[in-house]
Amino acid sequence: MSVKKLFIKSYGCQMNVYDSNRMTDLLRPLGYETTDLAEGADIVILNTCHIREKAEDKVYSDLGRIKPFKAAKSDMILAVAGCSAQALGDEILRQAPYVDMIFGPQTYHQLPEMIAKLSRAKSKDPRATILNVDFPEESKFDHLPDPTPTNADGSSAFVSIQEGCDKFCTFCVVPYTRGAEYSRPVEKIIQEIKALLSRGIKEITLLGQNVNAFHGLDSNSKEWNLGKLIKHIADFQELERIRYTTSHPNDMHDDLYEAHHRVSKLMPHLHLPVQVGSDSILKAMNRKHTCDDYLKIIDKMKSLRPEIAFSSDFIVGFPGESEKDFQETLKLIENVKYAQAYSFKYSIRPGTPAGAMEYQVPEEVKNERLYRLQDLLNTQQLEFNKSFVGKTLDVLFERDGKHEGQLIGKTQYLQSVYVDGKKRLKGSILETKIIDAKQNGLAGELILVQDGTQDQ
Ligand code: 5AD
Ligand code: SF4
């Protein structure tokens, strides 16, 4: 079989990274190998994100960049996948008529058939295109091949366990692009995790748009929640670290609290988006919880796992947000003290309730609030990182650094750590003394063990 080149780019969240990997897995048996260059590739897939306008704009600008490559290689297949494909459908063809395939997050398992169908259609009409944005009855997960590890060195992997969302936060497109909430069957997840562990994976991140709403069925049709799943997989000897993301405050449950309390393999780091700290904006966002509900969860987690650290997503400039509302968000941040966080200016998404709300906040106000919010979050992140200087953290080393002899790994809190160390230590979790801290990373020294193994 001749080797064909696949260029695939993921935009947005980790779920898209997972999906891109699965598309790569699907295309490998057809002879496709990945390439870092869109130019000259046989198939180019842009796995898009629709969460904010900026992400959508990026896709059109990348399409414009790829257009000449396509013109130079007439048999190149140019595909737009993911959430923007789902939301925009054939609108993409109007803007970029040189695109060949458009398919959403729920149909990518049909990629081999779509490629064959496109090739048949193109032999009759070179301008033929494929548009596949259905929500099929059957889950794609029933049709995907065994996964391969996510990072090149094979120490950590994502496993998608839940997808879609029924929460309908008024700002968010996810319920429309990813569809209704769906949990994968327990056995399938366990099978996928075991396959990854047999390939040397040490760290699994369970993924879902609302991962703690997971309610997969086992073979006896008994429902499992996320806490139960975590407690179960923690018994797999080869598995050393468990994470999950992204969660919703309303789906915290007793089994999950217990997992945080008892399962040492579950990392003491929780990404729990709150978005804002004002009750009236939370209500307008349809978050269905108050600021106080959120703080109670934080307190409970801290009492169960004192070393736990938190991260969150924030939105500034949601319609109707006053300076007082914004101050309440700052107050909540002061209160929780985040290890890290993502923050965004509210972006109008067509078709969402908030997009049609009155009192949209002016852009310059959003800019100014984002600046103040990020200033506070950055200060907290630096303080958090500095608190480890002189202490020891466990680091999973994953890849080479920029400099010769440098390795980069992740702490239990997802901080990046740089050390001098031998390549063969990649894939190991090693005690590391933290010697310096910046906002975006830590410098460390490996603690030499008695037999000097790190030295070899
Ligand atoms: N504008 C800005 N940020 C948004 N998010 C979701 N929708 C929007 C929007 N319309 C953010 C939320 C969510 C994260 C994944 O993206 O903070 O938690
Ligand atoms: Fe979007 Fe809200 Fe669902 Fe998260 S919980 S995916 S923010 S609708």
Description:
With 456 residues, this protein is an alpha/beta fold. The mean pLDDT is 93. It is globular, with a radius of gyration of 23 Å. It contains 13 helices and 19 strands. A 6-stranded parallel beta sheet has the order 2-1-3-4-5-6, sandwiched between helices. Strands 15-16-17-19-18 form a 5-stranded mixed beta barrel. Helix 8 runs parallel beside helix 9 (254-262) and helix 12 (323-336) packs parallel to helix 13 (363-386). The protein folds into 3 domains: 4-132, Rossmann fold; 146-386, pyruvate-formate lyase- activating enzyme, CATH 3.80.30; 392-446, Nucleic acid-binding proteins (OB fold (Dihydrolipoamide Acetyltransferase, E2P)), CATH 2.40.50.140. The site of iron/sulfur cluster has 10 residues, from helix 6. 5'-deoxyadenosine binds at residues 51-52, 171-172, 273, 275, 313, 315, 344, 346-347, 349.
Kindly report the CATH topology of the largest domain: pyruvate-formate lyase- activating enzyme
Which ligands does the model contain, each kind named once?
Answer: 5'-deoxyadenosine, iron/sulfur cluster
- Looking across the biggest beta sheet, what order are the strands in? 2-1-3-4-5-6
Mean pLDDT: 93
Structural class: alpha/beta
Classified by CATH, the class of the largest domain is Alpha Beta
Biggest beta sheet attributes = 6 strands, parallel
Stretches with pLDDT under 50, minimum 5 residues: none
Distance between the termini: 41 Å
Fourth CATH level, the homologous superfamily of the largest domain = tm_1862 like domain
Rg, nearest Å: 23 Å
Q: In one word, what is the shape?
A: globular
Number of strands: 19
Strand content: 15-25%
Work out the oligomeric state of the chains in this entry: single chain
CATH architecture classification of the largest domain: Alpha-Beta Horseshoe
> What is the count of structural domains?
3
Helical content (DSSP H or I, runs of 4+): 25-40%
Q: Please report the number of helical segments.
A: 13
